[in-house]
Amino acid sequence: MTAYEKGACFERKIKKFLQKKGWFVSRSAGSKGLVDLTACRRVPLGSPPVVFFIQAKLGAVSYPELERLTFLAEEYGAIPILARRRVRVGYIQFVDLRTMKELNL
Predict the structure, then answer these.
(1) Topology of the domain comprising 3-44+51-103
(2) Domain boundaries in the chain?
């Protein structure tokens, strides 16, 4: 399996995980851009929307890239998220790049 195929498989895993939790998720397949997945959650009428711009990473993290993702998310009112696979098999860590804290999803 190539690095691209592994990354695409991880993105699909994240998408499926979030969809099972009730999120609407769109994957930018093959875009090689800053945002791998965009996710939004249903909220009560009149509440502000919750939108994630997600960068999925299996390997090394490029901090300048994450900084650009943070600026882009701020520009559009989204929350910049780093999703990465942790040591435990099947565990996805979601990190809010504004606070650098792990989210419990």
Answers:
(1) Trna Endonuclease; Chain: A, domain 1 (3.40.1350)
(2) 3-44+51-103
User: Each residue of 14-50: pLDDT tens digit?
Assistant: 999 999 999 999 999 776 788 999 999 988 888 888 9
Write the single-letter amino acid at 37: L
Q: Do the Cβ atoms of 69 and 80 come closer than 8 Å? A: yes
What is the 3 state secondary structure string of 21-85? CCEEEEECCCCCCCCCEEEEECCCCCCCCEEEEEEEECCCCCHHHHHHHHHHHHHHCCEEEEEEE
* CA pair distance 48, 36, nearest whole angstrom: 23
Which residues does 40 contact at the CB level (< 8 Å), separation at least 6?
A: 23, 24, 49, 50, 51, 52
Task: Give the pTM.
Answer: 0.90
- Note the pLDDT tens digit of each residue in 47-103: 888 999 999 998 888 889 999 999 999 999 999 999 998 766 668 999 999 999 999
